[in-house]
Here is the input.
Amino acid sequence: MLHKKPLYTLGILIILLLSTPLLTNLITGRATTVSLSSAPKLTGQVAQALATTNGTVPVAGKDFTLQNINYFDNNSWVVATVKPASNQFDPGTVVLQNKQGIYQVALGPGSAFPRASVQALPPDVANYLQKQGVVYGPVIQQ
Amino acid sequence: MDPSYNSKRNLNTAVILINIILAIIIVISLALAIKTIHTTGLLILSSTDSSAVFSVSRDGSGAQVVGTGSARIRLKPGTYLVAANNTNKSATKVVTITTGQTSSVNLTPSSQTPLSSLSNISFNGFDYLLSNGLTSDQVTNLEQLFFSYKQTAKEVTIDQASVEPGPHNPNDSNFTMNFTGSIDSTLYRATITYSGLDAVSLKLTNPQTNTTFFSGKITE
Here is the structure.
């Protein structure tokens, strides 16, 4: 006849196996483990700024690329051109600032910026944007 | 030998083998979960906007959407940028993840820009200037002049009762106007000169000492 002990053990293990997802969920704090894929520098932060109204973020290399990347003021400011791969959004210029150890979008992405917004940028960054022809609005003389 | 004895013995062996395999699967699953909590930190995201879409990124990585309204995620140690987006509003925060520790971030998308911006200033009483001779373009340019004086101002107010036109020379195309008001809690006296459709100049002086602390103009 079949031994009872292995059968009882099988029953217990089946119950444990069915409970394993719940147990691992409790151990990990009911949290999903997220692993970010590697991507060219700055593209993750720019992708977050380009998040669409339906909640998706574009993927660097597939939906857009960053070109003409220029650093200013000991790499504390960056200006780049966002080039879309399709018509998902318009091409534009983006300005990022290094704050708290990570680059964050400070202006844009956009095709043009009002002079009042650019005034808050360091002069070399503002002058670069002016030369790129992406600043509009009246000139203030003091 | 009884054939049924052999089949029962084989069945017992199969049950024992299955038990061993199940036990291994359970132990590996639990071990992986324990390894996860020892190599990652917990990040709890929340927002007053239940439609806010959360995403995370870090230098050298792509961005990934992790939840809507709230999220509980585990990340490897490092510095991350968390963003909450909803239509045209967004908010971001930098968070540092430490192994074995829990970080909580509450983010609500807003329309404020990261840089000082004209849109962050509340201009009060400026509409009154429209009914006193200025064009809407001149009022807009006047706001820009106040912004260029103090980009971090929260509120610029004109005391409507103080608005009075200056003397006007019929041979001069310029008009002047004087008024007092406040920029946040600082009082000022202003003299504006305007002409055409959008040219305007602004001079700000201390009402007590008459010292000029700002002078600027926008020409056509």
User: Anything to note?
Assistant: The first strand of chain A starts at residue 32 and ends at 33. Residues 17 and 23 of chain A are 10 Å apart (CA to CA).
